[in-house]
From TrEMBL, chain A:
<dbReference type="Pfam" id="PF00005">
    <property type="entry name" value="ABC_tran"/>
</dbReference>
<feature type="domain" description="ABC transporter">
    <location>
        <begin position="5"/>
        <end position="227"/>
    </location>
</feature>
<dbReference type="GO" id="GO:0016887">
    <property type="term" value="F:ATP hydrolysis activity"/>
</dbReference>
<keyword id="KW-0067">ATP-binding</keyword>
<dbReference type="InterPro" id="IPR027417">
    <property type="entry name" value="P-loop_NTPase"/>
</dbReference>
<dbReference type="InterPro" id="IPR003439">
    <property type="entry name" value="ABC_transporter-like_ATP-bd"/>
</dbReference>
<protein>
    <submittedName>
        <fullName>ABC-2 type transport system ATP-binding protein</fullName>
    </submittedName>
</protein>
UniProtKB/TrEMBL annotation, chain B:
<feature type="transmembrane region" description="Helical">
    <location>
        <begin position="150"/>
        <end position="171"/>
    </location>
</feature>
<keyword id="KW-0472">Membrane</keyword>
<protein>
    <recommendedName>
        <fullName>ABC-2 family transporter protein</fullName>
    </recommendedName>
</protein>
<keyword id="KW-1133">Transmembrane helix</keyword>
<feature type="transmembrane region" description="Helical">
    <location>
        <begin position="12"/>
        <end position="36"/>
    </location>
</feature>
<feature type="transmembrane region" description="Helical">
    <location>
        <begin position="48"/>
        <end position="73"/>
    </location>
</feature>
<feature type="transmembrane region" description="Helical">
    <location>
        <begin position="183"/>
        <end position="200"/>
    </location>
</feature>
Automatic annotation (TrEMBL), chain C:
<dbReference type="Pfam" id="PF00392">
    <property type="entry name" value="GntR"/>
</dbReference>
<dbReference type="InterPro" id="IPR000524">
    <property type="entry name" value="Tscrpt_reg_HTH_GntR"/>
</dbReference>
<dbReference type="InterPro" id="IPR036390">
    <property type="entry name" value="WH_DNA-bd_sf"/>
</dbReference>
<dbReference type="InterPro" id="IPR036388">
    <property type="entry name" value="WH-like_DNA-bd_sf"/>
</dbReference>
<feature type="domain" description="HTH gntR-type">
    <location>
        <begin position="9"/>
        <end position="77"/>
    </location>
</feature>
<dbReference type="GO" id="GO:0003677">
    <property type="term" value="F:DNA binding"/>
</dbReference>
<dbReference type="GO" id="GO:0003700">
    <property type="term" value="F:DNA-binding transcription factor activity"/>
</dbReference>
Length: 232, 249, 124
């Protein structure tokens, strides 16, 4: 079965800094994968490369058989680590926009999620708190039936109750023909929902495998293994 | 997809923009009547009032023009190079579709604004001259003004507009290539290119049509060609920078 | 609220253990139908594949069996449950005795202290 995401000897540098150093990776569908690493490890660069927001210096990114292009943007649902919404719009205008551009967007699902999170879709985006803006962004991303979800710090700025809800939503959204890549530094919260983990350091993959197997091998939580690898 | 992009581009110009242009037309009309009354009754009005109205009109014209440019720049910049770039550049559309949809709407606003300004100036004289007389006069404009080919003129204006907008996009994109002072570098790029264009095209123009008049057919054709070439350079330059050299923050 | 897991062992093993405890204590009765992998994964706050692995573990031990179309059910095998209960009890006892010995109690002292504790704390 063709992997959902393939990276072939991918490299990217900024001026003199090497951000991604010859990375190769193959990820199947049906998995929730944690992309773990400190700032500067190359996580953000990798995510931008997969989304086609950056061009690689060397190597290939292949998603479902396509290079980053309109075809891949149709099946990738991306949550960036920043607020990117059109400030002048209302929440329901954003729902309209996503409905217009993405065939796999379910307006009904979005409205249900918004209701659960106590967000009124008549609100102006610029009047929302940062936490609520992030919730809206997450709703938009999760209301799509994409093949690859890329979530960059999905639970960073929200309160613990919302955090639980978000994790449950990610689990609930699980499907065998889609995968979720979660990039975060809040490892202990995210650990239980991960299938696999990828540790990134200085642009290279230093550890990769099934989360439970790694816990078994090291006798520690992924969080502890991570600290060990990064501080040792 | 493209029509959807257009739809969202058109939606957000803001009510104040139309209010500004409407205000412009109203003040111009008002001034037109003031001028007319001055004509028939020179002593009836204080000279200061029409003077102020002219000032206001001038200010409104400048404002509406500035507002148009600001809208064009701001929408392109914030949607592509700002945080909203994360949304725009991950939508399932090509960069060409994005640029062209924005270009189309920018040209629309520019032309709209130009028309409003022209009509405003016209409104200054309309009450004095009278509607009937103006309508009779209209067809003979072609003889009075030195444009013997209206079609070429329209095409010239159109291409000039497109080239002008694309230059703005290109300058903004060039600014993005720098890590600091991006806005400053955009200005530098903008004016450098304009100066380069003038330096380059004017001597060639003299060579091309040393004896012909301004606004003659060869003049138009020369400039239309120049605009087409410039537009292509600016367009593909912009697309290349966005695709290959952009790094969103 | 999601279940809490400790650092030391794989999550699927901890889930299997947790459900096993619930079966032994009859919190979940014999013959009862378990929620689906997805439902339980959501309740527990874990990856469905992990929950699947936990279920496989329970099936392997015989605590749970799968019926093709209807889902997963707790075993009817009362003997098995009693046996597992005894296994767990033995493990607890072993740990208890090992720890008490480590603290410094002799076997006689352990019995005496245990007796006192139960009489006073639990029956008194």
């Amino acid at each position: 079965m063709t992997p959902l995401l393939q990276l072939h000897h991918l490299s990217k540098s900024y001026k003199k800094q090497v951000a991604i150093d010859d990375i190769s990776l193959a990820l199947p569908a049906g998995k929730i994968i944690g992309l773990l690493g400190s700032n500067g490890s190359g996580k953000t660069t990798l995510i931008k490369l997969i989304n086609g927001l950056l061009q690689p210096d060397k190597g290939d990114v292949v998603i479902n058989g396509y290079r980053p292009s309109i075809e891949t943007k149709k099946i990738i649902s991306y949550l960036p680590d920043t607020t990117y919404l059109r400030e002048g719009m209302k929440i329901k205008d954003m729902l309209d926009l996503f409905d217009d551009f993405y065939e796999d967007f379910s307006r009904e699902k979005a409205e249900n999620l918004l209701k659960d999170l106590h967000l009124d879709d008549n609100e102006m985006l610029k009047n929302l708190s940062k936490g609520n803006k992030e919730k809206v962004q997450l709703v938009l991303v999760m209301a799509r039936k994409a093949k690859l979800y890329i979530l960059d710090e999905p639970i960073g700025g929200v309160d613990p109750a919302a955090r639980d809800y978000i994790l449950k939503t990610i689990i609930n959204n699980y499907s065998e023909d889609a995968s979720v890549i979660i990039s975060t530094h809040l490892i202990s919260d995210i650990e239980p929902i991960l299938d696999e983990v990828i540790f990134l350091k200085e642009g290279k993959i230093i550890l990769q495998g099934n989360a439970d197997d790694i816990r078994e091998e090291y006798g520690k939580s992924i969080d502890s293994v991570f600290r060990e690898k990064y501080n040792g | 997809m493209f029509s959807k992009l257009l739809k969202y581009e058109l939606k957000f110009v803001g009510k104040w923009y139309f209010a500004l242009n409407t205000g412009l037309l109203l003040i111009a009309a008002l001034l037109g009547f003031v001028i007319k009354s001055l004509d028939t009754n020179p002593q009836s009005m204080n000279e200061i009032i029409p003077f102020f109205l002219f000032l206001i009109l001038g200010a409104l014209i400048a404002s509406s023009w500035l507002a148009t440019i600001t809208i064009i720049v701001k929408r392109f910049y914030s949607h592509i190079f700002g945080r909203e770039g994360y949304l725009t550049l991950t939508l399932p559309v090509s960069i060409h579709q994005i640029i062209i949809s924005k270009l189309l709407v920018s040209v629309l606003w520019s032309i709209f604004n130009t028309l409003v300004i022209l009509i405003s100036i016209g409104l200054l004289f309309l009450p004095s001259v009278g509607i009937k007389e103006t309508l009779i006069f209209l067809p003979s404009i072609n003889d009075v003004l030195p444009f013997n080919n209206l079609l070429l003129l329209i095409f010239y204006t159109f291409m000039s507009n497109i080239s002008g907008n694309l230059l703005i996009y290109f300058a903004l994109s060039i600014g993005q290539l720098f890590s600091d002072h991006r806005i400053l570098m955009s200005f530098v790029a903008y004016f450098s290119i304009i100066i380069a264009l003038i330096l380059f095209t004017t001597p060639l123009l003299e060579k091309f049509m040393p004896y012909d008049d301004l606004f003659s057919t060869p003049f138009f054709i020369y400039y239309i060609l120049a605009f087409v070439i410039e537009s292509s350079i600016f367009y593909f330059g912009t697309a290349y920078i966005i695709k290959n050299k952009l790094n969103l923050q | 609220m999601s279940w809490k897991f400790d650092e030391k062992s794989p999550i699927y093993a901890q889930i299997a253990q947790h459900i096993k405890m619930q079966i032994i204590s009859q919190e979940i009765k014999s013959g009862e139908q378990l929620p689906t992998v997805r439902e339980l994964a959501e309740i527990a706050g874990v990856n469905p594949n992990t929950m699947q692995r936990a279920f496989s573990e329970l099936e392997r031990e015989g605590m749970v069996y799968a019926q093709r179309t209807s889902g997963r059910f707790v075993t009817d095998d009362k003997e098995l449950i009693v046996q597992k209960r005894n296994e767990l009890a033995e493990l607890e006892l072993k740990n208890f005795v090992d720890n008490m010995t480590k603290i410094g109690f002799s076997i006689k002292e352990i019995l005496s202290v245990l007796n006192t504790y139960i009489t006073e704390e639990k029956l008194g």
